Amino acid sequence: xxxxxxxxxxxxxxxxxxxxxxxxxxxxxxxxxxxxxxxxxxxxxxxxxxxxxxxxxxxxxxxxxxxxxxxxxxxxxxxxxxxxxxxxxxxxxxxxxxxxxxxxxxx
Length: 107
Known about the structure:
Elements: E1 3-7, E2 13-17, H1 24-30, E3 50-53, H2 58-61, H3 66-72, E4 82-84, E5 97-100
Parallel strand pairs: 1-5
Antiparallel strand pairs: 1-2, 3-4, 3-5
C-alpha cells in the first residue's frame, strides 16, 4: 500500500497508508488530516483540498489539467506546485509522496 506524507504548517508530518486508486484527498479524509476540507467531495469545483506538492515529487505527480487550473483560481496562495488533492490518484508510483498543507483553505 503506498504511503503519503502530509506536512502541516507547523512542520508536523503524518504518514498514512493510502489505497491505490483512492485520491490524495480521500486518503487525507479517511485519516483525519486537518487542513483538507473537501467541501465538494472531490468534484474539482471548490479548491478546499488545495495542497502543495513537495518539489521532489512535482514531475512524478504531473501537471494540472484545465479544470483544475480554473478551480485553483479560487484557492489561497496558489504556487507553481499547487494541486487539488482530489485530482491526484494514488498509485504505486506515488509511494512516498509528500504534500504540504496550506495555511488556510478557501471558503
